[in-house]
Specification:
The protein is of the alpha/beta class. 41% of the residues lie in helices and 16% in strands. The N terminus is likely disordered. Involved in chromosome partition. Localize to both poles of the predivisional cell following completion of DNA replication. One of its GO terms (molecular function) is ATP binding. This is Chromosome partitioning protein ParA. Keywords: ATP-binding, Chromosome partition, Nucleotide-binding.
Length: 276
């Protein structure tokens, strides 16, 4: 029997855009689900105090006993905090409103911007015999829509930033600020941070503006923009209210199929990067 080589550490991607309402949490949930559907092992880290990613994956607030707050503030392990979802191969570290106080509680703490990175680096250190030191292929961090200590922790921990970009008028304006933030993090916290890619969301093919925004973004960022485009789709909007990713809620809808294409692109880019 051929020897199975050990897997390397997970690829950590911060799903971020400082502009709200761009489909950031929706992208984290459904890209994670799509990656799991094609055989990858995925952890979603909910870094938003609103906890929408946790809700959207069917984790009720009353069951969130260990959250990302406990990991960042109290040093609980990723292994202890991660809970399985209804999607095989997809776990989540949930969030709740306690996260709102992190900025104050860690104001004088050592390595305050590296708490998440340190936790992810130690995710295999739980003392269990035979525990897989690299349990995930991808870690997706759902960032809050603002520049604060939580976002800085996410970007300090990440290998790359995946940027959901709404196909509307002010999209490029918000993107300019995000690029400045990424450059600031490179200079001060994480020199290896890169833009993993930009994904166009809420695309309406009936709207000429959507097409113009998409063309402008592709002209400016070239191959960094994924070919997969996430359409404005009622089924995608409905799914979170049922605590389900859209791929579970309605696999055949256009939104689900778009996220599957995006997942294949993400994996394809990673394979090319590793082969280079």
């Amino acid at each position: 029997m051929a020897k199975v080589l050990p897997k390397g550490p997970a690829r950590v991607l911060a799903v971020s855009n400082q502009k709200g309402g761009v489909g950031k949490t929706t992208t984290a949930i459904n890209l994670g689900t799509a990656l799991a559907a094609i055989g990858e092992r995925v952890l979603i880290v909910d870094m938003d105090p609103q906890g929408n990613a946790s809700t959207g994956l069917g984790v009720p607030r009353e069951t969130r006993r260990i959250t990302i707050y406990d990991v960042i503030v109290d040093g609980r392990s990723v292994h202890d905090a991660a809970v399985p979802t209804a999607v095989p191969g997809l776990d989540i570290i949930p969030a709740d409103a306690d996260m709102s106080g992190v900025e104050i509680e860690l104001s004088q703490a050592d390595r305050r911007s590296y708490r998440l990175r340190d936790a992810l680096a130690g995710q295999g250190q739980n003392g269990s015999a035979g525990y897989d030191p690299h349990p995930y292929d991808y870690v997706l961090i759902d960032c809050p829509p603002s520049l604060n200590l939580l976002t800085l922790n996410a970007m300090a921990a990440a290998d790359g930033v995946l940027v959901p970009l709404q196909c509307e008028f002010f999209a490029l304006e918000g993107l300019t600020q995000l690029m400045k933030t990424i450059e600031m993090v490179r200079q001060s916290l994480n020199p290896s941070l890169e833009i993993q890619g930009l994904v166009l969301t809420m695309y309406d093919r009936r709207n000429a503006l959507s097409g113009q925004v998409a063309a402008d973004v592709r002209a400016h960022f070239g191959e960094k923009v994924y070919e997969a485009v996430i359409p404005r789709n009622v089924r995608v909007s409905e799914a979170p209210s049922f605590g389900k990713p859209v791929l579970i809620y309605d696999l055949k809808c256009t939104g689900s199929q778009a996220y599957l294409r995006l997942a294949k692109e993400v994996v394809g880019r990673e394979r090319r990067r590793l082969a280079a």
